[in-house]
From TrEMBL:
GO terms for biological process: DNA integration; DNA recombination. This is Site-specific integrase. Coiled coil: none annotated. Keywords: DNA recombination, DNA-binding.
Amino acid sequence: MVELREKWPILGRHEQATAWLQVWQDLGRAPRTIDAYARGLAEYLELCERESVEPVRATRAHVALHVRELGSRPSRRGANVVALDSGAGLSNATLQQRLVSVRLFYDFLVEEGLRQDNPVGRGRYTPGTRGGGQQRGLMRRLVKLPWIPSDEQWRALLAIAAAEPVRTRLMLALAYDAALRREELCSLRTDDLDPGRRLVRVRAETTKSRRERVVPYSATTGVLLSQYLVRRASVSRARGGLFLSESRRNFAQPLSLWTWSKVVRRIAVEAGVERFSTHTTRHLCLTELAPMGWEVHAIATFAGHQHTDSTMRYIHLSGRDLAEKLERGMEHIHAQRVALLSTGIEGTGGPR
């Protein structure tokens, strides 16, 4: 908690905020989750101070103003922003994430008896209401299909990756084969692998759903793994993190999430596929499982999803696949119609 107050001093000026974050920390939430909550709440508290209003007495209008500022302010990442609909501010998904912190904070204040209601609210089903029974939340959630590269973009990226060190090539291969998230990949340990059966164990504490799973990887990735283990032994023979840094500053230390993101970003830029990120390999893998005949529940288990609703966002066909299906369907329909016309001609003795 001391680190959070040092990072965001405003938290120390609001006793209820510190108490709320301490509760989540005591409940064992992941450090990154606590950090995200602290950041989202700190930004909201800054608005409250600018508006000279106590958070306990803030209204829905103050929360709406906060949303407007987040959606319009220039991004701190500047030119590094790869895809943002508005060209400024935060994406809809990030705005929703920021609002979660504020909403949960007000839930806490309501439970403590410091407020009567939650100004953020949430969309929920209410039987008997007009308009389908759905009460809309403060901000409409946009559900978009994940972006995946085209075949040409994927080949361009692989051409660049082919010249990378074996560690990078193995990480890309594992991330694709096993549909691993960035944290799951970087957190792999030497004892998480079963080379004999080509299986990798994704530990519960590294997953988003906190559910352990065991997933396979290909024979080609197995070859890369064998090559990398020889390289890793020259860095360190100690058990522990699978992927180790070879930089002077962090030599033999586990590779950080941020370092891996920078590596992938550099490769993407060099390949001219700037939308490619550490999560794209997961999108691509899960998207390609459906045409291979995998059922939704099987894909959900493979991906580590708690609900198939999350899985359905990944299962979509590219425009090329749709075009091919349409073309095949139209050919069949065209052939049927021609056949019917021919039958009509024969049955009537020719055109009139």
